[in-house]
Amino acid sequence: MVQDTQKPQKSVLLRTIATPLILTALMVALALISQAVGSRPFNQTMIDIFVRVILVVGLYIFVGNSGVLSFGHIGFTCLGAYAAAWLTMPPMMKELSFPGLPEWLKAVQLPYGPGAVLAALFAGVFALLFGRVLMRLSGIAASIATFAMLAMINTIYANWESVTAATNSVVGIPIVRTIWPYMIGAIVAIFVAWAHAISRFGLALRAARDEPTAALASGIDIPKVRLVAFGLSGVVMGLGGALMAHSIGVVTPDTFYLGLTFITLSMLVVGGMSTLSGAVSGVVLLSFLIQGLRWLERGVPVGNSTFALPGGLQEILLGVVMIAILARRPNGLFSREFAWPFGARGRRGPALAANQTVPGGDA
Amino acid sequence: MFRTQLMTSLSVLALSLGPATGALAEDADGNIVVGFATAESGFMQAYDKPAQDAAMIRIDEINAAGGLLGKQIKVVNADTKTDRAEGAKAGLSVLDEGADMVVVSCDYDFGAPAALTAESSGKISFFLCAESIKAGIQGVGPHSFSASVLAAVQGATMAEWAYTKKDAREFYRLLDTSYVYNKGICDGFDWMLPKLTDATLAGEDVFKNDDASIASQISRIKALPKEPDAIMLCTMMPGAVSAIKQIRAAGINSMILNGSAVDGSYWLSAVPDLSNFYVPVQGSVYGDDPNPDVNAFNALYKEKTGSDPATQYTYPGYSMIDVWAKAVERAGTIDADAVVAELEKMDNEPTLFGPRTFTSDLHHQNKARYLIVETTAGKPGVVDEWTISEPVPMDALMK
Fold this sequence. Notes:
By secondary structure, chain A is mostly helical.
């Protein structure tokens, strides 16, 4: 199917492993910084960043590789978050919030780890179901259809009183404030995305993105390879949703709607839609920018006076910075994957070639 | 190589920052710290700011009178940006700055994340003006309280008052299903109605806050054999204005009973010459409160903030600091469990805005004195006051 796979598999793996390893190192570094700083709000900010990394990497798995912009992925995050609530809340609180749940589900109370894994799989199953239908569409039709899916999920969750508590806030979800589970989640998401990207499905999907006609002629079943990516990204989005629920301890349907959809999409686009490195660094950079501006809004002591930006300027400056970045680099900040610094791994030539394999023809 | 450098710089960072941490039980100067994890931006600011200003007035009064337990009350702030995830951070942030008590956003949905952080640190949290039973033990935990009165009490108050004082017998229930608060008002009304001998429900209907027209609901009211004596309107802004306007434009002149959410004169110009319109309030912003101290408070509020209180939701902030400070004085310590125990002993504790009661089951008011504000020819004013004959029971609140 894809001629490249005739080369030993190990070679692709070795040529591209630098990317997830560097990104993992970045995640570990962030977690260590958070430990070192030791302030709880800072720790919470880092947890937020890890959750966003999971979400944006989840988006990247589908959007980056297929080139189809999806406005619906936050729907899977919603599914994951509520599934985590159903699985991990104490049975007594579930009786109050979700009287309509089946008895066996009301009786279980899992630790957050297994709960998050099951919640991710739950979201993945729904992604496969929706994907069966949606993946036959292309271009703008597919994008709008994913948006319709988001609206559908949101409406159901905002109205199904006995099972989702409708628009009421769901409380009683165990809150996890240590940073490690979130770091591990982000690293798992990065490796899943990388493994998918170098797999035959990932390669075929990028081929279909860049040259649909040629890909079809080479025998690629486009709906199928898209469906694989959609299901996998659904799992990762679900994992993000579950961890997001544990990081705040409250879920409501309106958390998982347009606001989160657009901030995650902009992080992906600004970072570089077609690369995993772009997805991850987009989150990290924009999150730091947002936090930095918020910090300036609160005021910084300069000598005897306090320098503070007018309230609300953060949102405006963020928009300006994003426009500036996109004007300078329409493909996002990182349209190439991170690799070892020069000379660290043999000649430069093959390393570059390998980089281009992963992002596809965006040069 | 790259990683080695990274790790080296990280460990330097770790060493330099390591010891400068940890949540302080109390401010370094020995002050008592109140943390406001409230909205300083976003739409919740409109609700949080006035109540927070009122709370600051009480804090300033206490500090001027020598402080609490001989210590000054210090205030720290963190902005929730009307965002739940930021709310959790804001809660942690004020706790790290040593907050002994955390004040959270007015609305349950937006205040809960910060309240939960306070609860997990074993600190007291107060919702500025939440009116859902979840804003307290039921939705946060045993250290959480609300400064306002349950929505159900408002519905029950209006039903009983209209029945007793205005001889209303036939009620019509019109519920806006968009918000939980509205449902709470109608729940209280539903609980009270069967207790009122020969009061009947002439009919009921629902609408949505953003419905442009409630013409079909109105025609069903018009189709009744006789115009109902009172319409229990369970709704809030902004949909309330349009609903009221349409009811009156259709020529329905029944008295309209509401929850506190429609208090204030800012919207009355949209329904000129509105009459026969009743709202329960904790204190009057119209300068005619029967308690002269409330009018004095309004003047002080105007002096500090430059404008009169716009609605009664300013007041709970003041009562909140008042009852909390009293409990701290009585406990003789700032320890959360001891203060909670003192708060739970409060039975009809007098405050500027009516008596307050907390129990070990309910950190909220299931019975309260309300002033009744009547709007006549577009002019609101206090006409009466009413306290429901018995508290709203738990099962009516948990519906």
